[in-house]
C-alpha cells in the first residue's frame, strides 16, 4: 500500500494539503476519523477519547510497555485508547492507499514505509491563516493566536515524544518538508502529489 | 529574475539536482563558476581563491564590516575575495533566471527572493553515494568517508555562520527540503522543477 503521512505545524495548511493530495491521488483520507473509530469500538464519546489521548500524552505514558505500568483504572483506559488508536492505524495501513494527517502515523506506521511529509510556515503566515478561518466573534489577537499555535504544536511534539528516537519537526525524520509561507495550497498540491507518486515508484524499484 | 538556490549536505546529490533543474527550466547554472570568476577578476589562481575563502571562514571574518577590521595584508585579501564573491552573486542574480548551488547564495541573495531548496539524506546513503563516485584507488572506508562528509558540512555551516541570523540546514530557512535517501535523482527532479515554477508564479501573484 502507498501510505502518505502528513505532519504539520498548526495553521500551516497541512490538513488541506493532505485532503487535496488524497483527492488527486484517489487515496483514502484519514484525520479525525481515527478518534471517531476508536470511540466507536470502545463505546465512548469522541470528545472523551480526544481528552483521554491528551491526558495520556501529558502523563508521558510509556506506550511501548503497553498496559504493564498502567496501575489505575483511568490510566488503564488511557493506555487502552492509545493502543486502540495504534491498532486502527495499522489496520488502515493494510487496507488501501491512504493519506493520514497527524496522529503520529509517521512513526506508528514506520514498518509500512510511508512517504512522510512535514508542512510548516512562518509564524506570521500561520497567524494570518488561522485568523482567516476564525468565525465572527472568535477572533484572537495575533499574540493570542501565536500562543495558541505554539501550545498546540508543543502538544503534537509531546505526543511524538511517546515514541522513542523520534523528533517531531526535525527534517531528518521526513522525506519532504514543505514551507507553505505565502503559497496558494491548491496550486502546489498537484506537484507534491506527483513527487509522492514518483517516490513510491522509486521504492518499488529498489 | 527567478533564482533558485540549492543548499546541500555533502553526498546528498544537491549538485546533481541543481544541474538537472537548470537544464529542465532552461536557467543558467552556477557552482564552481563563481570562484573561477573571482579568480579571473582578481587575477589570482582558482585554488588560491578557494583556499583563501576557506581560511576567511575559519577566521570568522565579520563580512558585514567589510574591510574595517581587516588589519593585515592577508586578511585584507581574504575579505576582498569574499566581498568580490558576493558582488558576483548579486550580478548573476540580476542577469538571468538561474540555479546556484552552495556559495551561501540563499542568504547573500535574500533581497532577490530566491526559491531556497535544502537537499539532505541519511548518512549511510551519502556514504554509499560518495563511494560510488570515488575513482579506483581513492576509496575511503565508510567511517573515513563519514568523517570527511561531516567535516565538509561543518565547513558549509561555518561559512553560513558568517551571515548573522542564519542557520544552515534549519528547515525554517528554506522553502523546500528534499530528502534524497534511496531516490533516483533524475526521476524526482522534474517534479521539483514543476514545484519551483509554481512557487515563482505564486510569488508574482502576491
Can you walk through the features of this model?
- Two copies of one chain form a homodimer.
- Chain A is 53% helix and 11% strand.
- In chain A, helix 1 (14-25) crosses helix 8 and helix 2 (33-41) crosses helix 4 (73-93).
- The longest helix of chain A is centred in the middle third of the chain and has 21 residues, at 73-93.
- Chain A has eight helices and five strands.
- By secondary structure, chain A is of the alpha/beta class.
- Chain A has a single domain, classed as P-loop containing nucleotide triphosphate hydrolases (Rossmann fold, 3-Layer(aba) Sandwich), CATH 3.40.50.300.
- A five-stranded parallel β-sheet of chain A has the order 2-3-1-4-5.
- Chain A has helices at residues 14-25, 33-41, 46-58, 73-93, 105-108, 123-133, 142-160, 185-205; strands at residues 3-8, 28-30, 98-101, 115-120, 176-179.
- Strand 5 (176-179) of chain A pairs antiparallel with strand 5 of chain B, so a sheet runs across the interface.
Looking at this protein, list some descriptive labels:
206 residues; 8 helices; Rossmann fold; five-stranded parallel beta sheet; 5 strands; globular; alpha/beta; homodimer
Amino acid at each position: 500500500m502507498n501510505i502518505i503521512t502528513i505532519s504539520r505545524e498548526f495553521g500551516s495548511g497541512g490538513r488541506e494539503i493532505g485532503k487535496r493530495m488524497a483527492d488527486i491521488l484517489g487515496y483514502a483520507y484519514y484525520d479525525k476519523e481515527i478518534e471517531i473509530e476508536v470511540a466507536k469500538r470502545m463505546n465512548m464519546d469522541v470528545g472523551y477519547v480526544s481528552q483521554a489521548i491528551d491526558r495520556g500524552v501529558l502523563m508521558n505514558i510509556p506506550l511501548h510497555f503497553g498496559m504493564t505500568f498502567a496501575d489505575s483504572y483511568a490510566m488503564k483506559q488511557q493506555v487502552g485508547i492509545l493502543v486502540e488508536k495504534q491498532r486502527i492505524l495499522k489496520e488502515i495501513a493494510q487496507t488501501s492507499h491512504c493519506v493520514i494527517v497527524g496522529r503520529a502515523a509517521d512513526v506508528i506506521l514506520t514498518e509500512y514505509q510511508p512517504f512522510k511529509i512535514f508542512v510548516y510556515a512562518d509564524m506570521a503566515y500561520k497567524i494570518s491563516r488561522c485568523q482567516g478561518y476564525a468565525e465572527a466573534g472568535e477572533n484572537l489577537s495575533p499574540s493570542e493566536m501565536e500562543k495558541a499555535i505554539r501550545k498546540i504544536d508543543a502538544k503534537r511534539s509531546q505526543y511524538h515524544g511517546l515514541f522513542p528516537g523520534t523528533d517531531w519537526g526535525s527534517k531528518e525524520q521526513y522525506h519532504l518538508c514543505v514551507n507553505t509561507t505565502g503559497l496558494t495550497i491548491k496550486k502546489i498540491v498537484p506537484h507534491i502529489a506527483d513527487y509522492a507518486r514518483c517516490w513510491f515508484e522509486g521504492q518499488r524499484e529498489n
